[in-house]
Amino acid sequence: MPSDPGCYEERYRLTGSAVLALGASLLAVGLGFLWHTPAIFGVISAVLLVLATFGGGVVEAARRAVAFRADYAGVMLGAVPGTMPRRPAVFVPWADIEQIVVYPAEPRGRGGPGTARCVGIQRREGALALAEGNEQASGCPVPGVAAGATRRVTGWRLDRERLAAVTSVVAPGIRVTDVGGIEGTGRAASIPELRPPD
User: Fold this and answer.
1) Cα dihedral 108, 77, 144, 7 sign
2) What is d(CA 118, CA 12) in angstroms, rounded to the nearest whole number?
């Protein structure tokens, strides 16, 4: 079945680290039940702590919650699972969008994986303020991209070409811009914009 030319949607997926954390937690619970010692309470407490920390992300990924959606109405950035406080979903109508920006972001914390990608929405001047996160997005080189209108591409994949194709169909005046090359994407830093052929 061909995909809808006016809709692009990505959902959260189970990542290797989430599966590993869940497997380790279940193994610890199983071993705790095999050993009938007071240590079982320590193991169960540790498992519950791990599940409380990572569980939100695993549950969101398992139920395949929407991470990103662009359609005829606008762009929806899904809720970010496993964060405290939880970042809610944000919807931005096309009338408020100047451009969609894909940019590299440094990994969180020391020893994290290499450069990640982020997607952000540069809103038009005069657009209504977001419920939260109206300050400039940290690490985004494009001014006017609010922190609340960005998402790190983690636990889901961004199909840059599909996003550009849908945007050209539903909002032809809106650009999808790559800012800086990202290792492993095959895109050089000199590519300012990608549009499908007319």
Assistant:
1) positive
2) 15
With tokens 């919807």, the residue in question is 91
Based on the number of CB atoms within 10 Å of its own CB, is 80 exposed (0-12), middle (13-18) or buried (19 or more)?
A: buried
pTM score, whole prediction: 0.68
Rg (CA), the chain: 20
**Strand intervals (E) in 18-168:** 66-70, 74-77, 90-93, 97-105, 116-123, 145-152
- Which residue type, as a one-letter code, is found at position 179? V
pLDDT in tens, 106-130: 765 554 555 678 999 999 999 999 9
Q: Where are the beta strands (DSSP E) in the chain?
A: 8-11, 66-70, 74-77, 90-93, 97-105, 116-123, 145-152, 175-178
Residue carrying structure tokens 């498992």 = 47
Closest CA to 10 of 145, 147, 106, 153: 153
Domain boundaries, the chain: 72-178
